[in-house]
Amino acid sequence: MMKAAVYKGIGHMEIEEIDTPHIGDSEALVKVEMVGICGTDVKTFVRGHPMFQPPCILGHEFVGKIIKVGENIRNDFGDATYVIAPYIGCGECELCREGTSQLCRNKYGTGGAFAEYVKVPAEILERAAFCVPDGIPKEVMVLAEPLACAIHGIEKARATPNKKVLVVGSGPMGLLIGITLKNLGSIPVIAEIDEIRLNIAQNCGLETIDFGKEGFENFMKEKPMYNSIILANDKVDLVSKLIPFVIPGGTFELFGGMPKDARLEIDPYYIHYEEVSIVGSFGFTEEEFKQAYDLLCDDPDTYGKLISKIYEMDDIHEAFKAAMDKSNIKIIVNIN
Ligand SMILES: [Zn+2]
Ligand SMILES: [Zn+2]
């Protein structure tokens, strides 16, 4: 038996004793140590999610120890802590072969990680599990999954070094994108309306623009131009408002998920005459997960600033409440 935080429906999660996952020959059992609360977990908890039907266990940003492996898996993982991707592409379909494994329809995935143990398939252990080095705090390594998504967003937005990039939204993802752009040599500016979030971005060493009423009006007057704009929130009306600020040939990216009934209305002038590309970004490839791991190993201190608080699993409700509080960035749950 094991302890798990079972999601039972909107606003309802309970710590329960449930069966420890049974592993097959090509699976391993991981003793979870720490899990990050993701925006998706919060959304699911607050308004439900078509991909996560209750009862189920949420949580996909985790580190842990590989304590048991099936017959078909090499057993040299030892006592170290590993950061493990929650999913990878099948590696065989056309989408995977084209290098777009984030879109694979046949992904390998792990179980939900707000539990003492989680089941991991051999393919993920072989291709997307990395040892947390001594000296790197485990809670920082939990950022590998959201950082991989940020790296994917940067790639899709063609926000390569020396490019001016406007990142709209200073939530955990906007900040991860901003910090990483800076690390990679691009010139990011973070736009945000919330004062607390603006301060957090500044504390991370990022340049900011206040998108509050007056700030936004000034911005519209000044007309700064960007190679790429990355929309890291769900404000669909900002797409048509901000597209004129992309330089000809530049890129506008929808990074954040939009509400289900959202519809876009854009002046096609920008797409045809200005050749602005509108792109989306969702998830990550296993290569990007490895890149995220490398970046965290290189600069744990800057990324570590995004960790606001660590809660125990018994206090999971408090932890979710904290994750909804704008003054926090990343909330971590300590499992074992
Ligand atoms: Zn996540
Ligand atoms: Zn595939």
What does this structure look like?
Helix content is 31%, strand content 28%. The strands form four sheets. Strands 3, 4, 5, 8, 9, 16 and 17 form a seven-stranded mixed β-sheet that branches. The radius of gyration is 20 Å and the shape is globular. The mean pLDDT is 96. With 336 residues, the protein is an alpha/beta fold. The relative contact order is 0.16. α5 crosses α6 and α5 crosses α11. The longest helix has 13 residues, at 144-156. It has 13 helices and 17 strands. α9 links the parallel β13 (226-231) and β14. The protein folds into two domains: 2-144 and 285-334, Medium-chain alcohol dehydrogenases, catalytic domain (Quinone Oxidoreductase, Chain A, domain 1, Alpha-Beta Complex), CATH 3.90.180; 158-280, NAD(P)-binding Rossmann-like Domain (Rossmann fold, 3-Layer(aba) Sandwich). Bound molecules: zinc ion (2 copies). One zinc ion is lined by residues 89-90, 92-93, 95-96, 101, 104, 106.
